[in-house]
Backbone:
């Protein structure tokens, strides 16, 4: 536990954050080995976009059971960053949590599964947006509402644009937002920032 970067409280004792040993800490928390290995190689915000690398590493259909994009919210089944959005080890991890949650509240589980299966636009670990809507074509989502996913700020520029629209189109590093078929604004993702921005739009299947 002392290998973690975040402060931790266990049995009344506080372990302050320090230089992290991510691998050892993740192993102590029971995260899958494949995800720990991938995180070791790709967790460098100056050179990689970790979530985009996961997206690229996803060969088959993305499944909601391996959706780690909502891990900082109450609507997630895995607490870690997976190595892909169809990681078998993460799916098994989620299935175990799913059974436990279902014993406590089936209604809560249904809400979790709904959130995990809605379209998500991700630019980086700091810019994630969840839509109530549908992906209607490649890189095009029609939506009724949008949510800024923590740690995305409510004052985030792109979020303020998205809440005014009903359609979002991703074209390379350009995100176009429309309302009633008219473009109302555009956002240009930047690759020269500490958290490299690479946009991708994704939806998660219920099939595993």
Residues:
């Amino acid at each position: 536990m002392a290998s973690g970067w975040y402060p931790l409280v266990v049995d009344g004792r506080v372990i302050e954050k320090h230089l992290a040993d991510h691998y050892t800490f993740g192993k102590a928390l029971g995260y899958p080995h494949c995800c720990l290995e991938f995180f070791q190689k790709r967790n460098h915000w100056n050179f990689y976009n970790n979530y985009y690398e996961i997206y690229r590493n996803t060969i088959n259909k993305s499944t909601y059971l391996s959706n780690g994009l909502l891990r900082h919210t109450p609507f997630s089944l895995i607490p870690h960053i997976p190595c892909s959005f169809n990681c078998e080890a993460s799916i098994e991890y989620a299935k175990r949590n799913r059974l436990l949650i279902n014993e406590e509240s089936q209604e809560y589980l249904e809400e979790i599964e709904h959130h995990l299966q809605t379209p998500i636009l991700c630019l980086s670990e700091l810019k994630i947006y969840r839509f109530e809507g549908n992906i209607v074509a490649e890189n095009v989502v029609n939506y009724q509402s949008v949510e800024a996913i923590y740690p995305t700020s409510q004052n985030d520029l792109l979020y303020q644009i998205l809440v005014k629209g009903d359609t979002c189109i991703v074209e390379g590093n350009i995100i176009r937002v429309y309302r009633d078929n008219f473009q109302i604004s555009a956002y240009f993702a930047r690759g020269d920032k500490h958290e490299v921005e690479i946009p991708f739009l994704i939806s998660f299947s219920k099939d595993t």
